[in-house]
Amino acid sequence: MPPVPVPAPVVPAPPSRDVGPLMRELGLQEDHAAEPTAVVPAGQLRAVAQALKERGFMLMDTVGLDYSAYPERRPARFAVLHNVYHPRDHRRLFLRVWLDDGEAVDSLYPVWKAANYLEREVYDLLGIVFTGHPDLRKVLTPDDLEGHPLRKDFPLGESPTLFRDGRFLDPATFRAGLTGRDAGLTGYRGEFRRGESGERLPPVMPEGGPK
Questions:
Q1: How far apart are CA 43 and CA 75, in angstroms?
Q2: Residue 120 scores a pLDDT above 90
Q3: What's the rounded Cα separation, in Å, for the pair 105 and 47?
Q4: How many whole angstroms separate alpha carbon 26 and alpha carbon 106?
Q5: Residues 95-99: contacts with CB within 8 Å, 24+ apart?
Q6: Distance between terminal CA atoms of the chain?
Q7: Cross-strand partners of 153
């Protein structure tokens, strides 16, 4: 008698990580970005966060950005990005809130306690105020430091930094290189800007030390 064939076990398909249906369900506008991102009006942020928490999402990170020197026009100077993640089906969604200079945004601490230090860091480095945060104070910089170091208009120090292998970083040219207005003279052993060529060796230390 021939053996009875045993059917192969049915392996369920992995859950979809597409957050498009979720954004449509919550009425969120999709932003053009490398990762799934939704633009959320500041006044709706906490309600959207609560809806995501009820669906199993957790807050992973919060960052702030200053677009005042960005080459393309942005809706406002600042953006706050909340990175939310579903630990079971591995869906990830970024919530972007655009803010003008001096405009506050609701804290997500009442929704996710993880927002505590994340929002304090953004407040410290960019000066963005989170309304309803229970203890909004500096977390990284000294209390007597004036200004917010990640703002594009924050004055950087002007003392060259010397590295062990003889390279040096000059703040003015480093800043110019970062903004794209100049190639920069950081001595970084990296690639050239598009259309440039030359030796990839770091510059030698100037005689007598950095100038």
A1: 16
A2: yes
A3: 13
A4: 18
A5: 95/37, 95/38, 95/40, 95/45, 95/48, 95/49, 96/31, 96/33, 96/37, 96/38, 96/39, 96/40, 97/39, 97/40, 97/41, 97/42, 97/45, 98/39, 98/42, 98/74, 99/42, 99/128
A6: 92
A7: none
Residue in this structure with the two tokens 């990284």, named with its chain if needed: 140
The answer to whether residues 158 and 172 touch, using CB atoms and an 8 Å cutoff, is yes
| CB-based contacts of 189, cutoff 8 Å, min separation 6 | 200, 201, 202
Residue 107, classed as helix, strand or coil, is: coil
How far apart CA 119 and CA 109 sit, in angstroms, is 9
At 64-86, the pLDDT tens digits run 999 998 888 999 999 999 999 99
**Token pair for residue 113?**
């306690």
Q: How far apart are CA 60 and CA 146, in angstroms?
A: 29
What's the token pair of residue 2? 């021939």
Q: DSSP letter string over 140-153?
A: SS-TT--S-TTSTT
Nearest to 39 by CA among 91, 87, 7, 79: 79
Residue type, 147: G
43-55 tens-digit pLDDT: 999 999 999 999 9
> 177: buried, middle or exposed (CB in 10 Å: 19+, 13-18, 0-12)?
middle
